[in-house]
Amino acid sequence: MINLRAAADDDPVAVAEWGWTYIVLLSAIALFVVSFGAKVGRGVRWAAIPLGLVAAQFFLAYAAYSAAIVGVLHGLDALAIFRGRATGRTPGAEGIARG
């Protein structure tokens, strides 16, 4: 369990940011679970990628409190997540079952 007091230094804004982190992580897990039932080509793989990136973002943010250089990796991971969302492409869309 993450000690929010140590990470936030009694800052209520930082505690709220950690709350959003959990919401995003749980959303990525839900996407991954739903992908098993979806009839999309390579859907599980395309749902596992954001889950892995979001999980890495979560742990890199926590690790950045101990080593500031990890913040660079945290930022690069955020750009990778944003790139996946900003393109608007759905790589598995051609495999959607019709009918």
Textual characterization of the structure:
With 99 residues, this protein is mainly alpha-helical. The protein has one domain. It is built from 4 helices and no strands. It has helices at residues 4-8, 12-35, 43-63, 70-86. It is globular and about 45 Å long.
Fold blueprint:
Elements: H1 4-8, H2 12-35, H3 43-63, H4 70-86
Helix pairs in contact: 2-3, 3-4
What is the count of β-strands?
0
Tally of DSSP helical segments:
4
Main sheet record = none
Structural class: mainly alpha
Portion in beta strands: under 5%
Q: Which radius of gyration do the C-alpha atoms yield?
A: 16 Å
**Uncertain runs:** none
> Would you list the SSEs in sequence order as H and E?
HHHH
Q: Tell me, what's the shape? A: globular
Total number of domains: 1
- Distance N terminus to C terminus? 46 Å
Oligomer: single chain
Helical residue percent band: 55-70%
What's the short version?
The longest helix is centred in the first third of the chain and has 24 residues, at about 10-35. The protein has helices at about 5-10, 10-35, 45-65, 70-85. The protein contains four helices and no strands.
